[in-house]
Amino acid sequence: MSDTIKDKFIVFGAPEILEDEVQEVTDSMRSGWLGTGPKVARFEEAFSKYKGYTKGQAAAVNSCTAALQLSLIAAGIGPGDEVITTSLTFCATVNAIIHAGATPVIVDVDPGSMNIDVERVKEAITDNTRAILPVHFAGRACDMNGLLELVNAYGLTLIEDCAHAIETEYKGKKAGTLGDFGCFSFYVTKNVVTGEGGMVLARSKEDIDRVKVLSLHGMSKDAWNRFGDSGYKHYLVHEAGYKFNMMDIQASIGIHQLKRVDRSWRRRQEIWNRYQQAFKDLDITCPMDVGPDERHGYHLYTVLIDEEKAGIQRDEFLDRMTDKGIGVGVHYLSIAEHPYYQKTFGWRPEDFPNAQRIGRQTVSLPLSPKLSDEDVERVISSVIEILKG
Ligand SMILES: *Cc1c(COP(=O)(O)O)cnc(C)c1O
Questions:
Q1: For the segment 285-313, what is each residue's pLDDT rounded down to a tens digit?
Q2: Could you tell me how far CA 266 lies from the centroid of its own chain?
Q3: Does the pTM exceed 0.85?
Q4: Tens digits of per-residue pLDDT, 23-35?
Q5: Which of 55, 168, 224, 230 is the most exposed place for a label (fewest CB within 10 A)?
Q6: Is the C-beta atom of 183 inside 6 A of ligand 1?
Q7: Topology of domain 19-259, per CATH?
Q8: What is the CATH architecture of 3-13+261-388?
């Protein structure tokens, strides 16, 4: 790679950090209050409001992985229980189920939406099934009516992995508020970032109270007052909890990121649509168009490179993009490709053929509000050059 290209390397998923965040973090640093405090409370309040919930329905934590694990535990799910999830997701979705002590059951995805296939979910339900854990892949909402029907018919808990779905809506309802729990990520590549960070939303305030206790060593809720200046208070430990709380430094970033969420979303939508139009005549598979009554979160823009049609292997395409100074991603190799799950659960990629094929063909292109029009055109011309060259 030449030095000029290196200088202009488009980093995949680079967050847009502006002066407001910098100032707010500095303010926390100067105040000396780095840990969980008033800014975490402000961020929880702002996030619940954005989602149409009240403050008592949100708990900020240090990752979406933690959010998923605590939601499962708060739902009373543990050893002997089965949780059905998708075979096309980040490993954290499955690991959270394992760490809650439950047994993950994966099912194949719909090839068009790339979301969990409701028919497959139905076939996978057993007497031990306790929950369904769908992922709104790339920001496109799952078939929530289909899933809710199963949840109601079988008395299951619904936990939405909304790591891609901060802005997503399903038939006018906000992702993360359709299920019993919604889990969000503010990891550096996500649509709202805090560096590391996550949020649990729950329909029931009791569930959020439990999540809060679990996220801070299992100490009684009053322990949170420890972070105030109202004098010493004793705390009591009610269960063996975790250390999953969010810091004020993280919330400082999130508060300002969230204020810009709709503006950033419009820019993402613009870039997503530009790609969609620019690639429509190429021998690759573009994402399904977004319907007029859908609100996509535009977290990822992914194309499928089928070697037979495109004349180039997916991995070769990734290398060629990198050589051109463009960061790309793979979301994801299907879960059953990983040795740990093969060894532990006997899963084989070919048993989940849609997820397997997508995982072997998919490429994520840069999609960030930070990209200039010039960057976007560079991504487009690079893709076209590689495929036509
Ligand atoms: C990023 C991601 C997670 C994990 O988020 P963290 O905040 O990094 O723990 C979980 N599920 C999906 C689908 C993700 O993309």
A1: 999 999 888 999 999 999 999 999 999 99
A2: 19
A3: yes
A4: 999 999 999 999 9
A5: 230
A6: no
A7: Aspartate Aminotransferase; domain 2 (3.40.640)
A8: Alpha-Beta Complex (3.90)
